[in-house]
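Q: How would the structure tokens look for this protein?
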Amino acid sequence: MNAPTSAAQTLEFRLLNEFQRDFPLVPRPFAEIAARLCSDEDTVLKLLRHLRDDGTISRVGAVFAPRAVGASTLAAMAVPKERLDAVAALVSARPGVNHNYEREHRYNLWFVATAPDETALAALLGELGEATGCPPIALPLVEEYHIDLGFDLLHGGKVRQVARRCERRPTGPADRRLIAALQPGLPLVPRPFAELAAQLGLAESALVGRLAEWLAEGCIKRFGVVVRHHELGFRANAMVVFDIPDDEVDVIGQRLAGEAGVTLCYRRERHLPQWRYNLFCMVHGRTREAVVPVIERLARLAGYPCEALFSLRRFKQCGARYFDAS
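A: Here is the predicted structure in token form.
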């Protein structure tokens, strides 16, 4: 998406750019958004449904903080080229896999796996290894320096905001049911919280209050429109990885997280001997040529060499599924 040139484009652009976070937790949130955009509730809802149906957005809803609920990990497989499509299809078919990409590397299939707990996550990875004949390496999160705080569509960069840290929390049956109901995104109706509350046997005010608590605690990283970068014109993305001494990685990670062009930055466990890298940065841009200078700058700032794993194909992209709706 380029800079808006008409009233309709302005509405769409502002809706996508301004409401990736700070979604109004009120009975009629889309009416509140419409008032801020000098529009009306019906127009906003129709536009969001269109953007969802054409793939520009994946959903409107909650992005939970890593490690706050359930269990998750980034994982990778080294798949023979001639088997990549078949293996990718097997991986994507699992509900616990929410992102699945081909990248330029011997480890060429990268995906995010989620589960209710660590035992279930290990079982999922084991099953995928058995089903495909390509044992995955797991690279769980150790420290987040900048993760999913939104994306500035005008400048092609991240929303700058201090992240609130939230450690894993116990989730009872009621919370699990609520998280499961939120996973597909809000229903795009005038009173979405009332509809969810009715499904769960809750009062609307109780559901909204719980969401507000989770946001305040940092358990929900952000609540709002979840965009797909590729459909909005940011078609080049690279996962840039560094092997940083453990006593330096936090300082360097925080340094790189503040750089323009870095949309995600985090430390992950190594998986020796197969994978020695422990610092990861995601860089998005409209073209590969625009991304390469950012990668070169990051290497200079880090003081260590890096590898850049550009994305070649996206097999799956959806919201994380931690719990079943049952």
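The radius of gyration is 20 Å.

The chain has ten helices and 13 strands.

Upvote if useful.
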